[in-house]
Design a protein that fits this description.
Length: 379
């Protein structure tokens, strides 16, 4: 008996439907929910952007028992995984996420024993640019900082081993490069990923008088007032000054502006250096502020002139978050010291070094001006 073709087709469809109902098969891809997924430094949770995406995904993926999730939910899972893969640091894309270590520190460790038994990374970091001739003042400065600080010295004269006469030197990180300026070192050795563990980073000159200074008390005051970028007040009875706003006051714990001199004029009251201004000789940064400042440092402009005029770019409220700590003050003993004194016409002379620093200031201002214009035009 020959079957009618149409009848045969309908019979096959009916049999297929009955089998499908009897033995349901989930063909939508199902991914493992993201309960704890990170790179060793960034775990997923409700407080992170990716964590919130993951939480939303988990909620959407919850269905009535026995009901398969929708295709759109599976797509959300794939999107989250793709975002996580894209979030890896450049060069780490071939590694599994849980082995990626994004940050480091400047804390010395033993070559023996178990890593978990090493002394922990300190809470804060002190960085000094030094020459061996400054050893007396540098030694005095280091003793004003507690054991809560890791220490890094940038040596511009090539003399490092001589510092071992001081016990604290054996626990410091020493970086030596001949005749370089502080901001040259900072750009190359203080990358945000390296200083990420430190709540506050002191990047100081070597010629500061610290007789009345206490670093722990300083940090308490900076935290109390929410200062992201700060410096100690400058005691001009024992040292020099560059700007009125940085001079120590006797009647307040901190200040963020001044009305002395030209700053008394209304047009200048809310401009640098009358307000929200910290000098480059003794700045203190939170790690968040330093991340921004580090990116602003230009690799070829080694003197850093003009950075202090633009620190305001790296905080949300400059007139509140940039200030001078009067209760903890220092003295700047010497002014401009880079370069060789004597023959002003010789390469490396103090005059020629200062000319380059001044020229760099102009170049930096021009770059910022052009960058601001380009950003405004792109909006």
């Amino acid at each position: 008996m020959k079957l009618n073709p149409l009848l045969a087709l309908l019979s096959a469809a009916a049999i297929g439907f009955i089998i499908g109902v009897s033995f349901p098969v989930q063909i939508t891809p199902k991914l493992t929910p993201l309960m704890s997924f990170g790179d060793g430094n960034c775990t997923l949770g409700g407080s992170s952007i990716i964590g919130r995406f993951s939480e939303a995904f988990r909620n959407n993926n919850s269905t009535v028992e026995g009901t398969p999730p929708s295709q759109s939910n599976a797509t959300s899972e794939v999107q989250v995984l793709n975002m996580l893969a894209n979030a890896k640091p450049k060069g780490a894309d071939k590694l599994p996420p849980n082995v990626v270590d994004r940050v480091s520190d400047l804390h010395l460790r033993r070559l023996w024993g178990h890593p978990r038994e090493d002394t922990p990374t300190r809470k804060y970091l002190l960085v000094l640019t030094v020459g061996y001739s400054d050893k007396v003042n540098v030694n005095a400065t280091v003793h004003k900082f507690s054991d809560n600080f890791d220490l890094m010295l940038f040596h511009y004269d090539g003399r490092t081993s001589e510092w071992d006469e001081f016990e604290w030197s054996k626990e410091a990180v020493h970086v030596s490069a001949m005749k370089q300026a502080k901001w040259w070192y900072a750009k190359r050795f203080l990358h945000p990923s390296i200083v990420a563990p430190y709540e506050y980073i002191f990047i100081w000159d070597q010629d500061l008088g610290v007789e009345t200074f206490d670093a722990e008390e300083y940090i308490k005051i900076a935290k109390k007032h929410g200062l992201e970028i700060s410096q100690p007040g400058m005691d001009i009875t024992r040292g020099v000054k560059t700007y009125d706003v940085n001079v120590r006051r006797n009647d307040t714990e901190i200040h963020t502006s001044t009305t002395v001199g030209k700053c008394s004029e209304d047009d200048n009251a809310h401009k640098q250096p009358c307000t929200a201004f910290v000098e480059v000789n003794a700045p203190v940064f939170t790690r968040e502020a330093w991340t921004c400042v580090w990116h602003m440092i230009q690799s070829d402009l080694v003197h850093g002139w003009g950075l202090d005029w633009n620190f305001w770019r790296c905080v949300d409220e400059p007139e509140k978050q940039i200030g001078i700590v009067d209760a903890q003050y220092v003295a700047h003993h010497v002014g401009f010291t880079l370069g060789n004194p004597g023959n002003d016409t010789a390469d490396g002379s103090r005059r020629k070094v200062r000319l380059r620093a001044s020229s760099e200031f102009g170049m930096f201002k021009a770059r910022l001006h052009n960058a601001d214009k380009a950003q405004a035009a792109a909006r």
